[in-house]
Amino acid sequence: MGRYVARRLLQMIPVFIGTTLIIFLMVHVLPGDPIRAMWGDKAADPAQVASLRHEFGLDQPLWKQYIDYMVDLFKGDFGKTFGGRPVSEEMGMAFPVTLRLAAVALTIEIIIGIGLGAWAGLKAGRAADTGVLIFTLIVISMPVFVLGYLARFIFADELGWLPPNVQDSMNLQQLLLPGFVLAMLSMAYVARLTRTTFAENLRADYMRTALAKGLPRRRIVGVHLLRNSLIPVVTFLGTDVGALVGGAVVTEGIFNVQGVGNLLFKALGQREGTTIVGVVTIFVLVILLINLLVDLLYAVLDPRIRYA
Amino acid sequence: MRGAQSAKWVALAAVVALAATACGGNDSDSGSNDMNKGTADPNGILTAQLSEPQNPLQPANAKESQGSRVLKQIFAGLVDYEPGTGKLVYVNAESVTPNKDSSVWTVKLKPGWKFHNGETVTAKSYVDSWNWSANVENNQTNSSWFQDIKGYSDVHPDKGKPKADKMSGLKVVNDNEFKIELNSSVSYFAYKLGYDVWAPLPTGFFKDPKGFGEKPVGNGPYKFISWDHKKMIKVRKFDGYQGPNKAKNGGIDFKNYTTADAAYSDLRSNNLDWIEQVPTTALTNYKTDLGKRAIDEEYSAVQSIVPAFYTKQFKDIDPKVIQGLSMAIDRDTITKTVLHGSRTPADSYVARGVLGYKAGALKEQVTYDPAKAKSLIKEGGGVPGNKISIQYNADQDHKPWVDAVCNSIRKATGVDCVGDSKPDFQADLNARDKHQVKSMYRGGWVLDYPVNSNFMRDLYGSKAAGNTSGYANKQFDELAAKADKAATLDETVKLYQQAEQVLAKDMPAIPLWFYKVNSGQSNKVLGKIPYGQDGDPIFTDVQVKKK
Question: Which Pfam families does the record cross-reference, listed alphabetically (chain A) (predicted)?
Fold first, then answer.
C-alpha cells in the first residue's frame, strides 16, 4: 500500500511539469499583448509599455520566463498579477469560496443523487423508475445557464426564499442556490449510475445468499447492495470534484460568486499568465490527488481490490 | 400593485402560477416608492456597482473606468467640467491662466484645503505628484498625460533610464501657486487638467506608493475607508471638504459584481442603488422592468468603422467610395432596432456635449441614401474586390450591429460585406496595432477631456499615437497644429471645426453613432441620478431617501 502510494506520487511529477509547461506555452501563444491591452482603444505609450514588460519579466525569452516561474513556484511564490498583487493572495481568496461551493454541490449530489438512484433501482421497471428517468433526462438536457437563471427566477425573484446573488461568497447559506444549480447536472448522472448498478446488483449471487441467510432487508440493501454499487459512483464523484472546482465558471458568473472560475476567466481575458498557470497548477494537483484518493477508496469499498 | 412584469420565456406554466401568488411589488414605482417623493438623508449610504480595479488606487494608474470611478470620489483636481456644456469649472484651483501664447500656465490654488489626513494641500503636493507619476520607472499607465510639460522626456525617455526625477517645466512659486511650462503652445491645456492623473498627493504617498494604492488618502469629497478586495470599496463623506461639489449623501459602498446580469437582478430587488449598464439581454425590456427608475443618458463617446489605409483596398481609395459606404448605412433604423435605442446616430466626428461639437457637422455623409451611395461608389471607382469586412471582437456585444451595418451596405450598394470576428478584445487590438486588419475595423473613442481636439487630433493626426489606420492628411495636420497654437480656446475650437470639415471630405473613418448609458437606479434614490459627460454618475449629487 505504502509503496503504491509512493509510486503514484512520483508519477505526478512529470504530469505536473508537463501540464504547467503546456499551459504556460498556450497562454503565450494567444494573440494579444496584455500590457498593451491595458490602454484599450487609446494609444499606448511605448516607453511605458516597455518598462512594464520589464517589470513583469515579459521581455525575457520564453524558456527563461518558464524556468524563473518554476523556480519561484518551488519557493512557494506564485508571482504577481498585473495589478501588482501576489497571485497566492488572489488564489487564497478564491479557492476557499470554490471549495465551499463544491462542498455544497457535492453534498446535494450525493444525498439526492444516490437517494433517487437507489429508489429507482429498487423499483426498476415501475412508475418510480420511469419518473426518475424522465426527471434526470430533463435535467441533463438543460444547459447550466438556463438552469441557473430559471432557479434564480423561481426561488429568488418570485418566491423570494433566497437572495438572487451571493453578496458574501463565504456564506454557506447564500451558496445554497448556486450550489444546487451546480449540483443538478452531476446529480442526474449520479442517479442514473446508481440506479443501473443497483438494478444489476440486485440479481447478483451474493444478494441471493444474503437473502437466503435471512438477513433483514435493511441490512441487505444498506450494506451489501449499497457498498457494492458505489464503486462506479465513487469514480464519477471523484472526477466530478475536479470538474466542480474548475468548471464552475458559468454558475459562478450567474450568481456573482467570487471563486476560482471567475478568477480564471478574468485572468484569461487579461492574458495574466501568472494567475492562469497558478490556478491550473492547483487544479492539476487537486485532480491528481483526488484520483489517488478514489483509487484508494476502491480498496475500502471492495476488499477484493488490493494494492501492492 | 405589481408593475408590468416582463414575460420571461423561462416562465413555464407552473412558474407563472407561482408568480401570480407571490406578491413582490419591488419593481413598482408608484406610491411610497415614487422616486421624487420623500426627504433626502444627508448621511444616507449609496451602494453602487464596481468591478475590481485592475491597479492600486494611484491617480495616474487607472486607465480603466473602475479604478477611475473610485479615484474621482477620493481626489479633487484643479478643475472639472460642467455637465452638458463641457465648460471648465474650478475646483481646487482658484485660477488657471495661460501666458500670451499658452505655453506657460500659472495655477493658483484655493488656500487652506486639506487632505483627509489633515495635511495641507499645497503647490508642492501637485508638483511632486506629477513628477512622480510621469516618471517612466514608476510604471503608471497614464504617465503620457504629462508629455506636454517641459522636461517630460528627462523623466520619461523613449528608451533607457530617466535622466532626472523632476520635470524642469514645473516650478513652485509659493504654497498656493505654481507654474507649468509646456514644450509648445496648447491653448486648451487647462481642459486636460480635469482628468484624474492631475490629482495632488500627500507626502505619505512617496514613502510607500504601493501601500498608498491600497489605502489612498486624497483631498476629494469622499475619504477612503476600506478596500475589501473583490468585495467592496467603502468611501465616506469628508466633512472638511471645501470644494463646490460637496457630497449630498453620506458615502458610497462600491460593491463588486462579476457580471452585468448579477448586478441587474440586485438592482431590481433594490439590493443595489446604481448599476453601470443593463445587460444586453435586458435592453429590450429594462424600461418596463424599471419604470421611471430606468436611466437613459447620452455620453460623449463615438463608435465608428475605420478603413485600414495600409491595405491594398484602401491605400489609394477615392474618399467618395468611403462616403458612399457611409451613406449606405441606415443609422436610424439600426440604432432603433438592433441596438434597442442604446445609441443615437452620429452627425459629427466629435461627440455631443464636447466643446466644439457642431450639430450636423456631417450632413449628407451620414444620411441614409442608397441611390446616392451607389452612384458615389461608382464615381469613385468602386470598392476594390467589391467586398469589405469589418473586424470586431466577439467577447463584447458587437456582432449584432456589425451584421446589421453589413446588411445595410450590401442591400444599398451591392458591395459584399462580412463581419471579421476576433475571439477577444486583446486579439482585436493586436491585429490593429500590427496593421493586420484586412479591410475595416470597429473603432471606439470615449472622451479624455471635453474639447473637440480630443476627438480629432488624437485619432487622425498623422503622427498621433491613437492613429492606427495609417491615415495621413497634410491639410488636417497643419490645421491642427495651428489650432493648438491659437491664442484663445475659442479660436482653437473654431480651427478644429474647420479641420473637421477637412475630415468630412476625406472620411478617415465612418462615424456610426454616439453611446448612451442604459442603466437604472433603486427606489432608495431620491430623484434622478445626474450624469457627467464621461458616462459616469456625479455621485456627489446623488441623494438617498430617508428611511
Answer: BPD_transp_1, BPD_transp_1_N
